[in-house]
Design a protein that fits this description.
It is a single chain. By secondary structure, the protein is mainly alpha-helical. 54% of the residues lie in helices and 5% in strands. The two termini are 27 Å apart. Strands 1-2 form a two-stranded antiparallel sheet.
Length: 162
């Protein structure tokens, strides 16, 4: 498994699916575009599922240890439990929003995330995004992951800025 490298102000932070340390979190800074690219790379390289990829790139903003985040997000692969329902990347974005909003107003934020994600990707259901019935994907998984991170920036710009 190849680790991803995130460049912080004066430190290079190496991360794998296991997570970054609290010490690393203090030095960890990324733009939203860098977070989106890193999340897509985590998915592309198979280091994380879609949900894990989204929550992973926000570890520095979340008061939850990386391994715990990874385990919490593990069951949402391939549209929650591999049932190809709601996209795991979108679920990850809602999970991040729940923590960033401290649970206040999260349902309204979730609705806005769904709208932003759907505008970017064309759907919110995994099997539709993958083009299971049509054979033509609307949005490949790494792009769904990228778009979920960008949707967080659309909906919670102050909370996710570097």
């Amino acid at each position: 498994m190849t680790p991803l490298l995130f460049t912080a102000a004066t430190t290079t932070v190496s991360t794998t699916a296991a997570g970054i340390t609290a010490t690393d979190k203090e030095a960890f800074t990324m733009t939203l575009t860098e977070r989106a690219a890193a999340a897509a790379e985590l998915k592309t390289t198979g280091q994380c599922n879609c949900t894990q990829s989204v929550v992973k790139v926000f570890e520095d903003k979340l008061p939850v240890e990386g391994d715990t985040l990874r385990m919490l997000a593990a069951g949402y692969a391939a549209g929650m439990g591999c049932l190809e329902s709601t996209c795991g990347a979108l679920i990850g974005a809602v999970m991040v929003a729940g923590i960033l909003t401290e649970g206040r107003g999260t349902p309204a934020v979730a609705r806005a995330l769904v709208r932003s994600f759907e505008q970017r990707c064309g759907a919110t259901i995994c099997k539709e995004l993958k083009g299971v019935a049509t054979g033509v994907p609307l949005c490949p998984c790494p792009e769904c992951v990228r778009n979920a991170v960008l949707a967080l920036g659309d909906v919670l710009p102050d909370a996710v800025k570097e």
